[in-house]
Amino acid sequence: MLLTEKVAIVLATYNPNLQYFQKQIDSIKKQSFENWVCHIVDDFSLVEFQTSIQRLVNDDSRFICHFHSHNLNHYYNFERGLKYCIEDETISAIALSDQDDIWYPEKLAILLEKLRSEQAVLVHSDLRMIDREDKIISHSTWGFEGRNPEKLSIDLLLLCNVITGCSLLFCTSIVRDILPFPNQDKINWYHDWWIALAAAQKGKIEHVRQPLVMYRIHGLNNVGVTKDSGKFYREILSLTSKKFKFTRNSYLVRRNFSKLFYERFKEELDVLNWTNPFDDKNIDLGLKVIRLLCKSITSGYNAEGVALRIWCLKILFDIQKIKEYCLKLCTAKSR
Asked: Most buried by CB count within 10 Å: which residue of 37, 210, 308, 316?
């Protein structure tokens, strides 16, 4: 069946480290599944980088370079790349690539086989973490962060994303549900979070426990890679280091993101009687978030620390709304 498949790869670039970029390109060339095309989508790199990118792929016609005259940032650059993919009706699945990782030769073949055998719309794998010198930091990113992707649901995915963009492969059938990406002036969520959420709504997500990517950790990309990142103790340590000073951003990001998700899939979600756990229409002091926290614990999703933070922020948010309501009442009575 795989003989009839064609995969598009979206490789987003911006002033790449050329040594790392060369290794990523070489690893794509060495894929055991060979019927692919790679759209290198450059986000207005300096001219010397554009020249080097083109030079490094000139020997393989499967690479198509797209150089742009304005910078969109990584989120919208990946969106731009997906638009190139849907211009080719022979493409059956899409993978995403960073500019500094290394793929294992069997990556596309294994993911594609899993995608079709399980009749999924998206499949993703574990990753090995490597440093600047290609030395292994951790044999499993999922183990390092405490991820359990088997327990994934839409609500838990809204709470905490466990799907890494460079490890996924998804069907072109859901691209038109993914596009356009939800608008955001300041980047508060990443492309893979939105793609994963849309895929979870449209069908089944499967996973491969085998690491299929060497995920490079260096000074420019290590945000979000934290040991046991979703656990209670990790969140408490973080709050302690910040002297329990809260900002509302974590809650507001999920409130805004979940609203955009609902707007995109309103008809389908209404049929399911879906309740948004991050909705701010009602003052519930975070009751729905507490339920999500309990769900994370009982299912083993391991995002209860994140839920604890969001719950505290929702309480503060509701208290502020109560204060504003009381102030309005007092003002009205004094007139």
From this structure: 308
Count of helix runs (H) and strand runs (E) in the chain: 13, 9
Domain of residue 294 covers: 232-334
Residue 30 CB contacts under 8 Å (≥ 6 apart), including other chains: 105
How far is it, in rounded angstroms, from Cα 106 to Cα 3?
15
Q: CB within 8 A of 50, min separation 6: which ones? A: 42, 65, 67
Q: Does residue 227 belong to any structural domain of this protein?
A: no
The span from the CA of 91 to the CA of 35, in Å, is: 10
Q: Report d(CA 159, CA 165) in Å as an integer.
A: 17
pTM: 0.95
pLDDT in tens, 264-312: 999 999 999 999 999 998 899 999 999 999 999 999 999 999 999 999 9
What CA–CA distance (Å, rounded) separates 48 from 147?
Answer: 39
At residue 154, what is the residue type? I
Alpha-carbon distance of 264 to 228, in angstroms, equals 32
* Helix, strand, coil percentages, rounded to 5, for the chain: 50, 15, 35
Residues 311 and 171 in one domain: no
Place of tokens 């207005």: 44
